[in-house]
Amino acid sequence: MTSVPAGPVSLVATGVIAALVGVAAVTIGQSVRLARRDRRRESARDDLRRELLTRLARGDDADWAAWVAGFDATDRAVVEDILKTFLDRLRGPDRRHLRDLGQALGLGERARRKLLEGDRFDRLEALTWVALLAVPVDATTLREHCGGDRHGRAAAARVLHEQGHPEATAIGTDLLLSSGEALSTLGLDTLYRLNRDDPTTLVAAATDHATDWDNPLLIQVLRVVGACGPSDPDASLTWIPVLFVEDSARVRAAAARALEGYGWRPEVRTAADLDLLCDDDAPTVRRAAYRMLGAWGTEDARERLRNALADDPNARARLVAARELYRLSGERPTVEEWHGPGRPVSLAFRWVEANEAIRS
Amino acid sequence: MSTGILIAEDEDDIREMLAFKFGRQYDVTAVEDGRACWEYLEDHAEDPPAVVLLDVMMAGLDGFRVLDKIADDERFDDVDVVMLTSRGAEADVDAALDRGATDYVTKPFSPDDLRDRVDELV
Questions:
Q1: Is the CB of residue B87 less than 8 Å from the CB of residue B106?
Q2: B56, pLDDT greater than 60
Q3: How much is the pLDDT for A359?
Q4: Of B20, B22, B32, B87, which cross-links A53 as Cys (Cβ 3.0–4.6 Å)?
């Protein structure tokens, strides 16, 4: 057995303990400083809020500049916080006066500066103020400075939308889809808002780039297209049928739902390879196909739904077929007579009936 | 019945803003959650407020549960309830009106519009 000299060991131990004590001291000091700061802000908050509301009630005579001129750092931080809450929750004439307060505090200029020079978190904070204060900001700046990550892109696109930029849909959609990366929740919601009234831009982008996108983004775009429902008869369909043979069942199902969003017209009927969709190995794809057939409601669609109800091996898929037939009205007796009471078909209809009763 | 207004809103800044706005015109009481709102109503059942502004989303007893209690208690038959709901929560609006709310306001809201609506009720 070898013995370790006591000197170096105790030296190392002393060093470690000293480091731990140092870290603890810094942590405690920081905590005390932050707690004091929070207490100062809390005690100032009621007075500042009351004064803010009093001045807000004066409308154009609020004289924000004179008020904020006397602010220290605590006052400024508290008023910024209250202002953010009010701008986020309130509409109407007060909002304009609150924006004047934001400008008096220099928040618009600070946001512009941070947008150009700040790091990722500064930019997101800046975009929040840009949106709340309706600070004019050009699309080129947003594209150049917020295109680096998906959260920045989503926030920039949202700002364009909220500010009613004349090219918000084109620029915002391009910004969101530019990296091929899956969208954040805000990004997905923004893509929908940008395109819900007229998804022509999104459909055009999908037609050109769908094959370049990874599945997560492709599925998100398919869902948005399905939700927006391209009603333009000239809206491109060519990008969808090729997705019916994709390896991913989620892509195939999303493609079927997107096609459903196009509504019924001869071109859609031609694009939908119903034999392929209704015979797909994945129940999720067949369910999507049955929903589309239910939306169409043609005699051919009803016949395929009846066949699905009788033959589909998946219980949930049969339920979807039953529900679609039920919603097309009058189908229950026909099918029950066809298959006889007590058969799985009847059970499916009873479930659908009960479910519809609850929903209504 | 008084012409008072009871405000139940858990967000401090919004609650104080509403209290300030309505306080210039009415006798206002502002509380921070549903439980305090119901306790106030029970304590003032003899002379309840004319209008309750009730936020849907509150910790503990939420706005719907308070609304149910008000609707089920005949002492508050003359109390009008205006619900404050969030944008995009249309189901909340339907549920509130079904349960007996008189009116609703969707956040973000205009305090002036809200005051106009309350003026109609008081």
A1: yes
A2: yes
A3: 61
A4: B20
